[in-house]
Every structure is written in C-alpha cells, then in structure tokens.
Design goal:
4-stranded mixed β-sheet; alpha+beta; 262 residues
C-alpha cells in the first residue's frame, strides 16, 4: 500500500497563532482565519457531523451482520472538531508553502488507503482531506532540509506516540534515541513544523479561542500500520494542553524511522 511510504510528519512546535479577539478578528461564527481565507464554524461542524454520521452507520452495519447492538459510545468516532480545525489550517498553510516553493504535489494517497487505520469511512470529507494532507506532507518533506535532532523535539514526538499506545511509554531520552535510530522522521517533522509556523506568522493566522490549541496532524508508519496523532500545543511558556488523536493504536513495535515501505 502506497500510504505506508509515508514518513512521520509531526508538529514539534505549534503553529504561531493568536486568538481572534486579540487581532480584531472576532466573528463568533468563524473557527479560523488564515490570511485572507476564512474557515467557518459551520464548515467545521459539517465535516465533523459527516464523520460521526457515516462512522455510526458503518458500526451499525457491521454490528448488525454479527447480530450485535452497539452502544451509543461505540457509534461515535474519536475524531473531534479540534482535529478538523488542525487539518484545515495545516492544509492551508502547507499549500501556501508548497506554492511558494513551486512544488508539484502528486495525487497518490486515496481515502480508501487510509480508511482502516484512520477509522473513518473513506467517503467522508475528513478522510479525503487526510489523503490530500499526506500527499502534501510527502512533497514538503522531500524539499525541506532536515532539522537538527534535539532532545526536546525527539521527546515531543515520542511522548505523543506513547500516548496512542503505538510505542512503550516511560522511556529515557537515550532509549528513545536508540529506538528511533537516526531520527530521520523527527528531523523532517521539526523542519515541517518550522516551515508552517513561519508561514502562519507571515500570512497572519488567527484562531477562535475554542480551537486555539492548533497542532499539525501527524502520521507515522510502524511497518504494519499507520499511527495518526497530534502533538501538544507549544507556546513560549511550553506545552499547554494535549490535542486528541483520531484513534488509539495498539502497540505494534517502534515507528519506522525511515518511513518507507513498498
């Protein structure tokens, strides 16, 4: 599956954003402003509601085939409105960076390739946006020079992965360095984060306070599956809060530091 070629695309520094009220952009029906583009709460709600409705339908269908009755909790996807905002804002900024660099972004990753691991029906706009986002990540990661591998960036990625259950928690910096090898995917992630943050500052990104903890949607291949996650929002004072992930992925070994698989 081509999607398994994806390398990790984690956010090590959060987008440099301001609250709406701070910049005079305070329309209550707006989730985010990215330059001259406005993302309404209605758009966020529509994407979120689409996920919930189609996920619930899929769970009911599967349960019905097995003669089971799913609980209300089982009918709800773990995707949140924050996840939707993260994706919309990051896609916008990433496209601006790619355009400035005259990058051609191939259309390689389909929603169907992501459906099983993302745990979201391929017919949803959310899954389609993720496919578009991963194509963009691959193009950017091929062009951006890798960043230095600091302990902070290394552990930020590790902590986020550990929270999903994809890797053992409680490891030391030395242990993580050994597990991640040369840390190529962390270096790429740091470079990507820096590029998006710089673009956010350049075009003036302002976020509704409901969604201020914006992070870059992230994915890494373990070799057997894809793990989707986001890192904590980081500002000058450090981490503020966690951003939810689309799903909790059972441990299946350390992430593939090279991020390649045919």
């Amino acid at each position: 599956m081509r999607a398994r070629r994806v390398i990790a695309a984690a956010s090590v520094a959060a987008l440099g954003v301001l609250s709406l009220a701070a910049c005079g952009k305070s329309a209550p029906d707006v989730a985010a402003y990215v330059g001259d583009t406005t993302y309404s709460l209605d758009r966020v709600d529509a994407i979120y509601d689409d996920v919930q409705a189609k996920y619930g339908e899929a769970v009911r269908r599967e349960a019905g085939q097995a003669g089971a009755s799913p609980s209300p909790e089982q009918l709800r996807s773990a995707v949140t409105r924050q996840d939707v905002v993260n994706l919309l804002v990051s896609l916008d900024l990433g496209k601006r960076v790619a355009s400035a660099k005259n990058l051609q972004v191939p259309d390689e990753i389909s929603p169907e390739q992501l459906e099983q691991n993302l745990r979201v029906p391929a017919s949803t706009e959310y899954a389609k946006l993720w496919g578009e986002w991963i194509d963009l990540l691959q193009a950017l990661n091929q062009q951006l020079p890798p960043a230095d591998l600091s302990d902070d960036s290394l552990m930020a990625v590790y902590d986020a992965l550990a929270k999903t259950g994809a890797i053992q928690g409680g490891m030391s910096v030395a242990d993580v360095r050994r597990a991640f090898g040369d840390g190529g995917f962390v270096r790429s992630a740091t470079a990507l984060s820096a590029a998006l943050e710089e673009e956010a500052d350049r075009v003036d990104v302002t976020i509704n306070p409901r969604f201020r903890a914006v992070g870059v949607p992230s994915v890494v291949s373990t070799g057997q599956s894809l793990v989707f996650y986001s890192l904590p929002y980081i500002n000058e004072e450090g981490p503020v809060t966690d951003i939810s992930t689309p799903e909790s992925v059972p441990s299946s070994g350390s992430p593939d530091a090279e991020g390649t698989a045919s």
